[in-house]
Amino acid sequence: MKKRAALTGQVSDFDLRLLRVFKTVVDCGGISAAEVELKVSRSAISTSIADLEKRLGMRLCQRGRAGFSVTQEGRETYRAVLQLLASLEGFKTQINAIQDELRGEFNIGIMDSLATMYRSMRITDSLTRLKQLGPEVSINLSMNAPSEIERAVLDGRLHVGVVKHSKPFPGLEYCPLYQEQSRLYCGHKHPLFNAAQQDLNPEQVVSHEAVMSAYVQAVDVKAINEQLRGHATASTREAAAFLILTGCFIGYLPTHMAERWVDEGRMRELLPEHFHFETKYSAIVHKGAAPHLVRDTFMDELRKTEPAT
Predict the structure, then answer these.
(1) Could you say which DSSP state residue 193 is in?
(2) pLDDT confidence of 116, banded at 50, 70, 90?
(3) What is the C-alpha separation between 68 and 32, in angstroms, rounded?
Protein backbone atom coordinates (compact mmCIF):
# COMPACT_ATOMS: atom_id res chain seq x y z
CA MET A 1 0.00 0.00 0.00
CA LYS A 2 1.45 3.36 -1.04
CA LYS A 3 2.03 5.78 1.82
CA ARG A 4 0.41 9.20 1.75
CA ALA A 5 2.93 12.03 1.29
CA ALA A 6 3.84 13.26 4.78
CA LEU A 7 4.36 16.90 3.86
CA THR A 8 1.99 18.52 1.40
CA GLY A 9 1.33 22.14 0.53
CA GLN A 10 3.63 25.03 1.37
CA VAL A 11 6.05 25.03 4.29
CA SER A 12 4.68 27.79 6.49
CA ASP A 13 6.30 29.94 9.17
CA PHE A 14 4.46 27.77 11.69
CA ASP A 15 6.11 24.65 10.21
CA LEU A 16 9.53 26.31 10.45
CA ARG A 17 8.89 27.19 14.08
CA LEU A 18 7.99 23.57 14.86
CA LEU A 19 11.11 22.34 13.04
CA ARG A 20 13.30 24.73 15.03
CA VAL A 21 11.73 23.52 18.28
CA PHE A 22 12.44 19.92 17.27
CA LYS A 23 16.06 20.78 16.39
CA THR A 24 16.58 22.45 19.76
CA VAL A 25 15.10 19.47 21.62
CA VAL A 26 17.48 17.09 19.82
CA ASP A 27 20.46 19.41 20.35
CA CYS A 28 19.68 19.64 24.08
CA GLY A 29 19.05 15.92 24.46
CA GLY A 30 15.47 16.15 25.66
CA ILE A 31 12.43 18.30 26.33
CA SER A 32 13.38 19.21 29.90
CA ALA A 33 16.82 20.45 28.86
CA ALA A 34 15.31 22.40 25.95
CA GLU A 35 12.94 24.24 28.30
CA VAL A 36 15.67 26.70 29.35
CA GLU A 37 16.97 27.17 25.82
CA LEU A 38 13.54 27.83 24.30
CA LYS A 39 12.20 29.74 27.33
CA VAL A 40 8.83 27.98 27.12
CA SER A 41 7.23 25.28 29.26
CA ARG A 42 7.76 21.57 28.78
CA SER A 43 4.08 21.11 27.99
CA ALA A 44 4.31 23.73 25.22
CA ILE A 45 7.40 22.01 23.78
CA SER A 46 5.71 18.61 23.95
CA THR A 47 2.67 20.03 22.16
CA SER A 48 4.90 21.48 19.41
CA ILE A 49 6.61 18.11 18.90
CA ALA A 50 3.24 16.37 18.73
CA ASP A 51 1.99 18.94 16.19
CA LEU A 52 5.11 18.38 14.06
CA GLU A 53 4.71 14.60 14.22
CA LYS A 54 1.09 14.97 13.12
CA ARG A 55 2.12 17.34 10.32
CA LEU A 56 4.83 14.96 9.06
CA GLY A 57 2.92 11.76 9.72
CA MET A 58 5.75 10.06 11.61
CA ARG A 59 7.03 9.45 15.12
CA LEU A 60 10.12 11.61 15.71
CA CYS A 61 11.02 10.76 19.29
CA GLN A 62 10.11 8.61 22.25
CA ARG A 63 9.34 10.51 25.45
CA GLY A 64 8.00 9.42 28.78
CA ARG A 65 9.09 7.72 31.98
CA ALA A 66 11.65 5.63 30.10
CA GLY A 67 13.42 8.82 29.02
CA PHE A 68 13.93 10.67 25.77
CA SER A 69 15.26 9.14 22.55
CA VAL A 70 15.13 10.03 18.86
CA THR A 71 13.67 7.50 16.42
CA GLN A 72 15.35 6.57 13.15
CA GLU A 73 12.80 8.73 11.30
CA GLY A 74 13.55 11.50 13.79
CA ARG A 75 17.30 11.31 13.12
CA GLU A 76 16.74 11.53 9.38
CA THR A 77 14.33 14.43 9.87
CA TYR A 78 16.89 16.18 12.09
CA ARG A 79 19.51 15.98 9.32
CA ALA A 80 16.99 17.35 6.82
CA VAL A 81 16.15 20.21 9.22
CA LEU A 82 19.84 21.14 9.49
CA GLN A 83 20.12 21.30 5.72
CA LEU A 84 16.91 23.32 5.41
CA LEU A 85 18.00 25.89 8.01
CA ALA A 86 21.44 26.13 6.42
CA SER A 87 19.79 26.79 3.05
CA LEU A 88 17.58 29.51 4.55
CA GLU A 89 20.60 31.14 6.15
CA GLY A 90 22.47 30.94 2.84
CA PHE A 91 19.55 32.67 1.12
CA LYS A 92 19.58 35.49 3.70
CA THR A 93 23.33 35.90 3.30
CA GLN A 94 23.08 36.08 -0.49
CA ILE A 95 20.33 38.71 -0.27
CA ASN A 96 22.46 40.71 2.15
CA ALA A 97 25.40 40.35 -0.22
CA ILE A 98 23.33 42.09 -2.88
CA GLN A 99 23.19 45.05 -0.49
CA ASP A 100 26.96 44.61 0.05
CA GLU A 101 26.51 44.39 3.84
CA LEU A 102 28.00 41.82 6.19
CA ARG A 103 25.02 40.31 7.99
CA GLY A 104 23.67 36.91 8.95
CA GLU A 105 25.24 33.87 10.59
CA PHE A 106 28.73 32.48 10.18
CA ASN A 107 29.07 28.80 11.10
CA ILE A 108 32.58 27.49 11.69
CA GLY A 109 33.62 24.07 13.00
CA ILE A 110 37.03 23.25 14.44
CA MET A 111 38.76 20.35 16.15
CA ASP A 112 39.25 20.40 19.90
CA SER A 113 42.25 21.84 21.76
CA LEU A 114 43.40 24.41 19.21
CA ALA A 115 42.77 27.40 21.48
CA THR A 116 46.09 26.74 23.26
CA MET A 117 47.96 27.33 20.00
CA TYR A 118 48.09 30.97 21.12
CA ARG A 119 51.34 31.77 19.35
CA SER A 120 49.57 31.38 16.02
CA MET A 121 46.17 33.05 16.40
CA ARG A 122 45.13 32.99 12.75
CA ILE A 123 41.57 31.77 13.34
CA THR A 124 41.02 34.06 16.34
CA ASP A 125 42.48 37.12 14.61
CA SER A 126 40.39 36.50 11.50
CA LEU A 127 37.20 36.18 13.56
CA THR A 128 38.09 39.43 15.29
CA ARG A 129 38.52 41.17 11.95
CA LEU A 130 35.23 39.69 10.66
CA LYS A 131 33.34 41.18 13.62
CA GLN A 132 35.04 44.52 13.08
CA LEU A 133 33.95 44.56 9.44
CA GLY A 134 30.46 43.18 10.17
CA PRO A 135 29.28 43.91 13.72
CA GLU A 136 25.89 42.34 12.93
CA VAL A 137 27.42 38.98 11.94
CA SER A 138 26.45 36.21 14.37
CA ILE A 139 29.29 33.69 14.83
CA ASN A 140 28.46 30.07 15.70
CA LEU A 141 31.52 27.94 16.56
CA SER A 142 31.27 24.19 17.16
CA MET A 143 33.83 21.49 17.90
CA ASN A 144 33.57 18.08 16.25
CA ALA A 145 35.56 15.20 14.82
CA PRO A 146 37.27 15.91 11.45
CA SER A 147 34.96 13.61 9.49
CA GLU A 148 31.85 15.35 10.88
CA ILE A 149 33.31 18.78 10.08
CA GLU A 150 34.02 17.72 6.50
CA ARG A 151 30.47 16.39 6.05
CA ALA A 152 28.99 19.57 7.53
CA VAL A 153 30.99 21.78 5.14
CA LEU A 154 29.96 19.65 2.18
CA ASP A 155 26.23 19.73 3.01
CA GLY A 156 26.23 23.42 3.90
CA ARG A 157 25.72 23.23 7.67
CA LEU A 158 29.15 24.81 8.16
CA HIS A 159 30.61 27.64 6.10
CA VAL A 160 34.21 26.90 7.14
CA GLY A 161 35.90 24.02 8.93
CA VAL A 162 39.34 23.53 10.48
CA VAL A 163 40.69 19.97 10.27
CA LYS A 164 43.88 17.96 10.08
CA HIS A 165 45.22 18.10 6.54
CA SER A 166 45.88 14.50 5.58
CA LYS A 167 44.33 13.05 2.44
CA PRO A 168 42.46 15.78 0.49
CA PHE A 169 38.72 15.16 0.34
CA PRO A 170 37.02 15.61 -3.07
CA GLY A 171 34.80 18.67 -3.15
CA LEU A 172 36.76 20.60 -0.52
CA GLU A 173 39.22 23.46 -0.93
CA TYR A 174 42.07 23.63 1.59
CA CYS A 175 43.85 26.67 3.04
CA PRO A 176 46.95 25.62 5.08
CA LEU A 177 46.95 27.04 8.62
CA TYR A 178 49.11 25.45 11.29
CA GLN A 179 51.87 22.92 11.81
CA GLU A 180 51.45 21.26 15.19
CA GLN A 181 54.13 19.30 17.07
CA SER A 182 53.09 16.33 19.22
CA ARG A 183 55.24 14.45 21.73
CA LEU A 184 54.87 11.55 24.14
CA TYR A 185 54.03 12.44 27.76
CA CYS A 186 53.46 10.89 31.16
CA GLY A 187 51.85 12.40 34.26
CA HIS A 188 53.63 13.24 37.52
CA LYS A 189 52.18 10.12 39.19
CA HIS A 190 53.63 7.81 36.51
CA PRO A 191 56.67 5.58 37.27
CA LEU A 192 58.62 7.17 34.39
CA PHE A 193 58.12 10.75 35.59
CA ASN A 194 61.17 10.84 37.91
CA ALA A 195 63.43 8.68 35.76
CA ALA A 196 66.62 10.39 34.58
CA GLN A 197 66.55 11.16 30.85
CA GLN A 198 69.76 9.19 30.25
CA ASP A 199 68.22 6.13 31.90
CA LEU A 200 65.27 6.00 29.50
CA ASN A 201 65.25 4.01 26.28
CA PRO A 202 62.50 3.51 23.66
CA GLU A 203 61.92 -0.15 24.54
CA GLN A 204 61.43 0.69 28.20
CA VAL A 205 59.03 3.56 27.43
CA VAL A 206 56.77 1.60 25.07
CA SER A 207 56.46 -1.23 27.59
CA HIS A 208 54.10 0.97 29.64
CA GLU A 209 50.35 1.14 29.09
CA ALA A 210 49.27 3.93 26.74
CA VAL A 211 46.16 5.88 25.80
CA MET A 212 45.27 5.64 22.10
CA SER A 213 43.24 7.99 19.91
CA ALA A 214 39.75 6.79 19.02
CA TYR A 215 39.40 9.30 16.17
CA VAL A 216 40.67 8.79 12.61
CA GLN A 217 44.34 9.64 12.07
CA ALA A 218 46.70 9.94 9.13
CA VAL A 219 48.38 6.67 8.14
CA ASP A 220 51.87 7.77 9.28
CA VAL A 221 50.58 9.08 12.63
CA LYS A 222 48.56 5.91 13.19
CA ALA A 223 51.70 3.83 12.63
CA ILE A 224 53.58 5.90 15.24
CA ASN A 225 50.78 5.42 17.79
CA GLU A 226 50.66 1.69 17.13
CA GLN A 227 54.17 1.36 18.60
CA LEU A 228 52.53 1.86 21.99
CA ARG A 229 50.66 -0.67 24.17
CA GLY A 230 47.10 0.59 23.96
CA HIS A 231 45.13 0.00 27.17
CA ALA A 232 42.77 3.00 26.98
CA THR A 233 41.13 5.11 24.26
CA ALA A 234 40.27 8.80 24.09
CA SER A 235 37.82 10.47 21.70
CA THR A 236 39.59 13.87 21.94
CA ARG A 237 43.00 15.23 22.87
CA GLU A 238 41.52 16.69 26.08
CA ALA A 239 40.26 13.22 26.98
CA ALA A 240 43.78 11.86 26.37
CA ALA A 241 45.19 14.53 28.70
CA PHE A 242 42.77 13.45 31.46
CA LEU A 243 43.99 9.85 31.19
CA ILE A 244 47.67 10.82 31.07
CA LEU A 245 47.24 12.92 34.22
CA THR A 246 45.95 9.85 36.09
CA GLY A 247 49.52 8.52 36.10
CA CYS A 248 48.34 5.22 34.66
CA PHE A 249 49.11 5.86 31.00
CA ILE A 250 51.56 7.49 28.62
CA GLY A 251 50.25 9.16 25.47
CA TYR A 252 50.78 11.71 22.72
CA LEU A 253 49.65 15.33 23.09
CA PRO A 254 50.32 18.52 21.10
CA THR A 255 53.17 20.45 22.70
CA HIS A 256 51.12 23.67 22.87
CA MET A 257 48.43 21.83 24.84
CA ALA A 258 50.76 19.99 27.23
CA GLU A 259 52.96 23.03 27.88
CA ARG A 260 50.94 24.31 30.85
CA TRP A 261 51.09 20.94 32.65
CA VAL A 262 54.81 20.61 31.94
CA ASP A 263 55.40 24.09 33.40
CA GLU A 264 53.36 23.13 36.48
CA GLY A 265 55.41 19.94 36.95
CA ARG A 266 52.44 17.68 36.29
CA MET A 267 53.68 16.19 32.99
CA ARG A 268 57.01 15.48 31.31
CA GLU A 269 58.12 14.65 27.79
CA LEU A 270 59.46 11.17 27.16
CA LEU A 271 62.43 10.96 24.76
CA PRO A 272 61.20 13.81 22.50
CA GLU A 273 63.99 13.13 19.99
CA HIS A 274 62.47 9.68 19.42
CA PHE A 275 58.73 10.02 20.13
CA HIS A 276 57.30 12.91 18.11
CA PHE A 277 55.28 13.70 15.00
CA GLU A 278 53.91 16.72 13.14
CA THR A 279 50.31 17.45 12.16
CA LYS A 280 49.23 19.99 9.56
CA TYR A 281 45.90 21.83 9.83
CA SER A 282 43.89 23.53 7.12
CA ALA A 283 40.74 25.61 6.83
CA ILE A 284 38.26 23.98 4.46
CA VAL A 285 35.42 25.37 2.37
CA HIS A 286 33.07 23.75 -0.14
CA LYS A 287 34.77 23.92 -3.53
CA GLY A 288 32.53 25.56 -6.11
CA ALA A 289 29.95 26.74 -3.55
CA ALA A 290 27.84 29.79 -4.34
CA PRO A 291 29.29 33.18 -3.32
CA HIS A 292 28.82 33.87 0.37
CA LEU A 293 29.87 37.34 1.52
CA VAL A 294 30.48 36.50 5.18
CA ARG A 295 32.39 33.28 4.46
CA ASP A 296 34.42 34.86 1.66
CA THR A 297 35.30 37.87 3.83
CA PHE A 298 36.49 35.57 6.63
CA MET A 299 38.62 33.53 4.22
CA ASP A 300 40.12 36.70 2.73
CA GLU A 301 41.10 37.86 6.22
CA LEU A 302 42.44 34.40 7.05
CA ARG A 303 44.72 34.39 4.01
CA LYS A 304 46.08 37.81 5.02
CA THR A 305 47.31 36.28 8.30
CA GLU A 306 49.56 33.79 6.50
CA PRO A 307 53.15 34.22 7.79
CA ALA A 308 55.58 35.66 5.26
CA THR A 309 57.93 33.08 3.73
Answers:
(1) T
(2) low
(3) 10
Residue 281, classed as helix, strand or coil, is strand
CB atoms within 10 A of CB 176: 11
**CB under 8 Å, gap of 24 or more: what pairs does 208-211 form?**
208/249, 208/250, 209/248, 209/249, 209/250, 210/249, 210/250, 210/251, 211/240, 211/243, 211/244, 211/249, 211/250, 211/251
* CA-to-CA separations, 231 to 5, 60, 266, 303, in angstroms, rounded: 51, 39, 21, 41
Residues 125, 300 contacting (CB under 8 angstroms):
no
Is 104-309 CATH 3.40.190.290?
yes
Q: For residue 187, which amino acid is it?
A: G
pLDDT tens-digit map of 49-79:
999 999 898 999 988 777 789 999 999 999 9
What pLDDT was estimated at residue 252? 93
Per domain, the residue ranges of the chain are 13-80, 104-309
Q: Please give the Cα distance from 146 to 79 (Å, whole number).
A: 18
Q: For the segment 165-189, what is each residue's pLDDT rounded down to a tens digit?
A: 777 778 899 999 888 899 999 999 9
Q: What is the DSSP letter of 198?
A: G
Give the rounded distance of the alpha carbon of 281 from its chain centre.
14
Three-state SS at 273: coil
- Class for the domain spanning 13-80: mainly alpha
Report the 10 Å Cβ neighbour count for 147.
12
Handedness of CA 255, 256, 259, 260 (dihedral sign): negative
